[in-house]
Each structure stands twice: as structure tokens, then as C-alpha cells.
Specification:
By secondary structure, this protein is mostly helical. About 70% of the residues lie in helices and about 5% in strands. A hairpin with a 2-residue loop joins strand 1 and strand 2. Helix 4 runs antiparallel to helix 7 and helix 6 runs antiparallel to helix 7. The relative contact order is 0.11.
């Protein structure tokens, strides 16, 4: 066609330039700037809300709504780039590396919580009550809901792997069913954890129950948040499987979701063994320093 550029060529200043790299250069996007404004609104609004400043609540909620809008639009654009063929093998490798680095940062995030938990259990500072658990506090029974949730998450790990194998076989109908089951297991886990928290609070085990309570709820609560985020991630993958958008040889979005979900599984195993089982069975009392 007259006037059209040959494959691998770009026009600029009246000259044709051959593209000599496999990397996709994205078009100018408003989402980084809008996302930054949304994040500022959330943090500033939350500070105002917690200090009783008028309008803080609504600024926070508006910021959260804008954050979700930016996430939807930005990821929509990424999918459009992928469907257009812009995600070459080199770009796909970069996306996978970015997800792996993100998961690595999450590992360090949880490492800080485990550090605080072990510090409070083994080398408590002199400024906190010197008993573990605090007097009058009954830890969550290890072999009740925590054990049941362990079985649920381990099962969900197998169903998401099942979905991955189905996608690689180009059987997206089976992948949809497996992902739907994984989402249901994730929601079940969250429901049981909510029930566990409500019951524990009624029994007097709260966030204010010394370092035992604060580190327990910080670690398990943030893990619960990650389960909810991972569930939303998998809901999107389920919709994509329903519409048959995955390719057997390229499904980076699903791989990212599966890796994230397996990370959530592994973190839970550490929480179950060290926080619920070991931490819940540890008992000691010492005099004030």
C-alpha cells in the first residue's frame, strides 16, 4: 500500500527508521499522574479522617475510588497492548521479572512481621508486659479454623495449577471451571478468617493484647488482605478464561496471578506453623526488668 511503512520501520522527521530492538515503547499515558494524585488523596484523606478533620472520610473514599479506576484503565491498556502483538518475548520476560521482583518485595514485607513476632516471643523488650501470651488471653486454637484454612489454601493451589495446565492445552473451558473453584476457595478462606477474628475478639484476644496480639493480627491480617487481592486477581483471570483470551504459549497475566496465589499459599504455611502452632503453644512468664 502506497505510503505505508514496512514492518519494523518507524517514521520520524520524514525519514524511515528500522526498529532494532524487540522492546515495546508505550504511548504517553495519563495513568501514572492520575494514580499519584489518587494515592495522595487516599493518604492525605486518611490522615485527616483519623484526626477528625471534616471531609477526610470523603477524600479517602474518593481517592480509593480513583485508585480502582486507574487500576482498571491502566491494566485495560496493558491488555490492549498484548492483544495488538506489542508484547514480544523480550517484553514478556520483562513483565515476568517485574512480577518476581514484586513478590520478592512482598517476601521481605512479611519477613518484617515474622521478625517482630519472634522478637516479642523470644527476646521481648523490657517496656512490654513480660508474659506470652498476655495474661487472660487465649490463643486461637491451631487445629480449628487455622488448620481448615490451611487445607483450603492448599487445595486452591492445586486448582490454580490445574487451570494453568488447561490453558497450556488450550482448554479454556476447563481453565474457567478450575479458576471458578479457586475463587470460591479464596472467598471461603476469607469468610472463615473473618469468623475467626470475630470470635477471638469476643474472647478478649485483640490487637491491643501486647506484642502477641499486635504481631498476630498484623501478620495474619495482611496475609488476609493478600488473599483478597489475589482473589480479585483470579476473578479477572476467570473472566478472561470465560472469553477465551488466553493463548497456550503466552499467558503472562495468568502466570502472574498463579505465582501470586502460590506466594500467598507459602506465606500461610509459615503463619500456620510459626504463628498459630508454635506461637500459640509457647507460654512463659518473667518478672519486670
Amino acid at each position: 500500500m502506497a505510503g505505508s511503512a514496512a514492518p519494523g520501520m518507524l517514521h520520524g522527521h520524514g525519514h524511515a527508521h528500522e526498529v532494532k530492538h524487540p522492546y515495546h515503547l508505550v504511548d504517553p499515558s495519563p495513568w501514572p499522574l492520575v494514580g499519584s494524585v489518587a494515592a495522595l488523596a487516599v493518604t492525605a484523606g486518611a490522615v485527616m479522617w483519623m484526626h477528625g478533620v471534616a471531609g477526610g472520610k470523603w477524600i479517602t473514599l474518593a481517592g480509593l475510588g480513583l485508585v480502582f479506576f486507574v487500576m482498571f484503565m491502566w491494566w485495560r491498556d496493558v491488555l490492549a497492548e498484548s492483544y495488538s502483538g506489542a508484547h514480544t518475548d523480550a517484553v514478556s520476560r520483562g513483565l515476568r521479572m517485574g512480577m518476581l521482583l514484586f513478590i520478592t518485595s512482598e517476601v521481605l514485607f512479611f519477613f518484617a512481621f515474622f521478625w517482630a513476632f519472634f522478637w516479642g516471643a523470644l527476646v521481648p523488650p523490657e517496656t512490654v508486659p513480660t508474659s506470652w501470651p498476655p495474661e487472660g488471653v487465649e490463643p486461637v486454637p491451631t487445629w480449628g479454623i487455622p488448620f481448615l484454612n490451611t487445607l483450603i489454601l492448599l487445595t486452591s493451589g492445586t486448582t490454580v495449577t490445574w487451570a494453568h495446565h488447561a490453558i497450556r492445552q488450550n482448554d479454556q473451558r476447563t481453565a474457567f471451571k478450575a479458576l471458578l473453584l479457586t475463587v470460591a476457595l479464596g472467598l471461603t478462606f476469607t469468610a472463615f478468617q473473618v469468623y475467626e477474628y470475630i470470635h477471638a475478639y469476643h474472647q478478649g484476644f485483640t490487637l491491643q493484647s501486647g506484642m502477641f496480639g499486635s504481631t498476630f493480627y498484623m501478620a495474619t491480617g495482611f496475609h488476609g488482605l493478600h488473599v483478597q487481592i489475589g482473589t480479585v486477581f483470579l476473578v479477572v483471570m476467570t473472566m478472561r478464561a470465560w472469553y477465551g483470551t488466553f493463548k497456550p504459549d503466552k499467558h503472562v497475566g495468568f502466570e502472574a496471578a498463579a505465582w501470586y496465589w502460590h506466594f500467598v499459599d507459602v506465606v500461610w504455611l509459615f503463619l500456620f506453623v510459626w504463628v498459630y502452632w508454635w506461637g500459640g503453644s509457647l507460654h512463659w512468664t518473667a518478672g519486670q526488668g
